[in-house]
Design brief:
Order of helices and strands: EHEEEEHHEHHEEEHEHEHEHH
Largest sheet: 6 strands, parallel
CATH class: Alpha Beta
Number of strands: 12
Radius of gyration: 17 Å
CATH superfamily: P-loop containing nucleotide triphosphate hydrolases
Shape: globular
CATH topology: Rossmann fold
Number of helices: 10
Distance between the termini: 12 Å
Number of domains: 1
Length: about 240
Amino acid sequence: MTRGIFLTGTDTGAGKTLVSCAILAALRRRGLRVAAYKPVETGCRTENGIRIGADCELLARASGGRAADVSSCLFEEPAAPLVAAEAEGRTIDRRVLVARFAEIAGAADFVLVESAGGLMVPVCDGYTTRDLAFELRLPAVCVIASRLGCINHALLTLEVLRASRIPVAGFVMNDVGDDEAHALALRTNRNVLNRFAGVPDLGAMPRVDSVRRDDLAHLAALAEEHLDLDGLLRA
């Protein structure tokens, strides 16, 4: 069995890549051979004829790999994978995604797979991110952006995981910024989720200033202090 996690989120912008990089950097600092895999990234740029994924670049730095090896499919349009692929006249082959995962996982002590968007995002006809998570057979971690409405999104995501027979390692709360208008919700989101989620609380990632989001040493230190890395490794 491959040791690792499938990291998804409540929605786009939940902070999956930030949390992923923090986990990867921390585990790498512990001496583990880590690998990152983002099967599909959309909203990519093209430079000198080469498609580049910003998330893949960050994940590669955090894992010590190459950005070109992190993903199977890169698309320009910032849309669901199915939509972005069809905009380019392409179709995503799920077998390619699974096969690439096997290659990456085979050379690592721990592999972190980061989804594009949330769990029910369409990848190709009849196939969503949930189906990919099921095929990869990794325990799932749900990153939750702490904001008004996140409890509903989080509980729905966790319920879909359970109904799909995908093991759940737990959830990570991510502080996405101040919101004075909804201060009560922000103060209580994590506590309420612990009362209703029925899965382990793996910690809360504090807000990270934009100027420090590329500071891997800082992210690793935050992960060690605020996240249950040992719980992730036992998942």
